[in-house]
Write a structure and sequence with these properties.
Elements (H helix, E strand, L loop, with lengths): L2 E7 L7 H11 L4 E7 L5 H7 L5 E6 L13 E2 L1 H6 L4 E5 L2 E5 L2 H13 L7 E5 L3 H12 L4 E6 L2 H18 L4 E6 L14 E4 L26 E4 L8 H9 L2 E3 L2 H16 L5 H14 L1
Parallel strand pairs: 1-2, 1-3, 4-6, 7-8, 7-10, 8-9, 10-11, 11-12
Antiparallel strand pairs: 3-5, 5-6
Length: 289
């Protein structure tokens, strides 16, 4: 009997995760199908409940459910609990366990694709959702010098900053964490001394209401920074195009997507992820999108 792994989110029709995950499953000749399970608001509980069926092994969770899925699970991994967001569900026996592999994928891409070491650096995070939470805690764990969180809803940014500060206090880290209102993204002085800008919003994502837009203007982007856009489709987002024009280094979201997916693959299958195969398939599919 075939078994199944799903991608839970809304929308997910544009996702390339099913392609590169299936390539990895096929590499090991596993009778497992990875499918996109587009889940409308209000249907999340029902979709997660179906994971308990015998044929299902687990799921990835993407926008907008990484935070709202937590109370539907039986156990939450320590890192996922700290971040407050789950992107991977694993069924073990009769229990649904929640994990977060976004933080791992983010840092691995930062190191391997951009040769960037966060320790002591000034970072600016655009957004305060599940991805931004993973990025923020990952940077704090890597001893970033400062973290500035800018989000369109100020209260969500403040809630994330407070969570980060509480974590820092508990383990004795000293990353300075501040919050700025969204209009400050138009002001060049906001980015004057930063080394890393991470876009964790969906602004500029293909098939989104803000397709073709950038969260930053050209004049706000410092030439000395690394601009890291977690969006992977298009591969060269409007933000990254502007960053190139500004002379900044850039990193797109595809490596993070694959690296976090590889970590999820290993949780589901107990096998080493064939990362090169996954990356090649992701590149191939994205070229056709």
């Amino acid at each position: 009997m075939s078994r199944f792994i799903g991608l839970i989110g809304y929308p997910v029709k544009h996702s390339i995760s099913p392609y590169f995950q299936q390539a990895a499953l096929d590499y090991y000749q596993l009778d497992i199908r990875y499918q996109a399970w587009e889940t409308l608001p209000g249907e999340l509980g029902e979709t997660v409940s179906r994971l308990r069926h015998p044929q299902n092994l687990g799921a990835n969770v993407t926008v907008p459910y990484k935070e709202s899925v937590l109370p539907l699970l039986d156990e939450i991994d320590e890192l996922a609990s700290l971040i407050g967001a789950v992107n991977t569900i694993v069924k073990r026996d009769d229990s649904l366990l929640g994990f977060n592999t976004d933080a791992h994928g983010f840092i691995q891409a930062l190191h391997e694709r951009a040769n960037f070491e966060p320790e002591g650096k000034q970072a600016i995070i655009l957004g305060a959702g599940g991805a931004a939470r993973a990025v923020s805690f990952a940077l704090v764990q890597k001893k970033a010098g400062s973290l500035t969180i800018i989000n369109r809803t100020l209260e969500r940014a403040e809630a994330l900053a407070n969570s980060v500060r509480s974590y820092q206090a508990s383990i004795g880290l000293e990353t300075k964490t501040v919050v700025l209102p969204w209009p400050t993204v138009t002001t060049p002085v906001t980015f004057e001394h930063c080394h890393l800008v991470v876009n964790c919003t969906t602004i500029g994502m293909k098939h989104s209401p803000e397709e073709g837009k950038s969260p930053l203007r050209l004049e706000a982007i410092p030439s000395s920074a690394l601009v890291y856009d977690l969006i992977y489709n298009p591969s060269l987002t409007p933000l990254l195009q502007l960053a190139q024009r500004a002379g900044a280094n850039i990193l797109g979201g595809l490596p993070m997507l694959v690296y976090q997916g590889a970590a999820s693959f290993e949780l589901w299958t107990y096998r080493k992820a064939p990362v090169d195969i996954m990356l090649n398939k992701a590149d191939e599919v994205l070229e056709r999108c």
